[in-house]
User: Fold Non-ribosomal peptide synthetase from Corallococcus carmarthensis.
Amino acid sequence: MSHELSKRIANLSPEKRAELLRKMAAQKAASGNSTQGLIPVQDRSRPLPLSFAQQRLWFIDQLQPGTSLFNVPMAVRLEGALDVAVLERALREVVRRHEVLRTTFREDASGPVQVVAPEPALTLERKDLTGSPPEEAWRLAREAAAQPFNLATGPLLRALLLTSAPGEHLLVVVVHHIVSDGWSMTLLV
Assistant:
């Protein structure tokens, strides 16, 4: 579903949205419960091939290892009371639900492959900047964004929480482009 269509549906009145859902359910019932066209689930116990886009990014990483050129950073200011343990659990749950965020990329005898880890390997790094100048948080955010990823060992998502005062935080999330794009980043935040 396109972002524009999602916005249009979100802006519908509750009555119109309910009507749309009824029509969609009726259409689905009329078409039957056919599973034709569903993408088969791959066996995740062994390495998987890369998509063409992933092959391209993996190849560039082999030519220029240690670059942050394909890092996708974002920073979100969080104000008010924050339960850091809940934030960390929420981030870990997102990684658990989306296997691409648990994926690393290595080379075996057949070439580059994806390896999906069974469990998320995410730790929310925390830094207390109380008493530091405001630009210190942005300096650390830029530093986190510039830190390269190792595609073979991962994880390919990092999260950093910078606290400048009680109730004032900056959440920095950096993901390698091989496991994300602009649209998927909007879902994360």
About this structure: The two ends are 18 Å apart (CA to CA). The beta strands are 48-49, 71-79, 103-108, 111-116, 124-128, 157-165, 168-176. The chain has one domain: 48-188.
